[in-house]
Amino acid sequence: MTYSIVARCARTERLGVAVATASVAVGARCPFATAGIGAVVSQNRTHPLIGPRALTLLEAGAWGDAAARQAAEAFDFPEWRQVALIDASGRIGTYHGAKCSGVHAEARGEAAVSLGNLLSSARVPEAALAGYDAATGTLEERLLAGLAAGLAAGGEIKPLRSAALVVVDRDAFPYTHLRIDADADPLRKLEELWQQWQPVAETCRRWALDPDNA
Q1: Is the model's pLDDT at 30 over the cut of 90?
Q2: 139: pLDDT confidence band, cut at 50, 70 and 90?
Q3: Hey, which of 136, 138, 155, 157 has its CA 20 to 30 A from 13?
Q4: CA distances in angstroms from 120 to 60, 131, 152, listed in the order given
């Protein structure tokens, strides 16, 4: 019941994930990212430890489809899981378990990948990736554009209820970590939340790292 985009910005080297689903609190279970290491989305009856496991594998030098598969297979029931990841060099990996739900598909681009399950059409990831590629601005704005394009192409078979956006820069904590946990229009709400967060993001970063001069 989920579609997502995982990407690396060539200009800033930031890594990020945007994800939306028909269930609640997707941001608590599916997107993960660590600066300088990679970004991961784990979905389709997910196990919330798959993402952290994938990041550990990337840090140890694993990459690509093998890393995605190893992360899923580190826990029981890998046949139900769907995983996408990107490392700090922009290398992509995906995994689709044999029991991945309904129509499921992926689309790969330059340092970006979109995938989903229980989709209204196998074209949704392609549309999401095209929306991401066509957008300009920050990585956050491009990821949000990708989610919107995926929804315009049909999204998943049920109405969306939650969405999340995670972007890491160079610190040990995310630069952006926004969640809409339960709403009838989560993509609109996530966009509104981004508009509130963007002007204060750098200030909040300075609060953590240099509060005397923030």
Answers
A1: yes
A2: very high
A3: 155
A4: 37, 17, 11
Alpha-carbon distances of 107 from 4, 27, 126, 131, 150, rounded to whole Å? 11, 22, 5, 12, 12
CA pair distance 84, 51, nearest whole angstrom? 9
Name the amino acid, one letter, at 159: P
DSSP SS3 for 193? helix
The single residue listed with the structure tokens 């945007």 is: 18
- Compute the radius of gyration of the chain from its Cα atoms: 16
Angstrom distance (rounded) from CA 110 to CA 147:
17
For residue 100 the two structure tokens come to 């991945």
Q: In the prediction, which pLDDT does 186 show?
A: 98
Q: Is the pLDDT of residue 104 over 80?
A: yes
Q: How far apart are CA 197 and CA 194, in angstroms?
A: 5
Q: Which residues are within 8 A (CB) of 152 and not within 5 positions of it... i.e. 6 or more apart?
A: 127, 131
Ordered by where they begin, the domains of the chain are 2-213 (3.60.20.10)
Whether residue 207 contacts residue 190, with contact meaning beta carbons closer than 8 Å, is answered with no
Burial 3-17 (b: 16+ CB within 10 A, else e): bbbbbbbeeebbbbb
Q: Decide: 97 and 80 in contact? Cβ < 8 Å.
A: yes
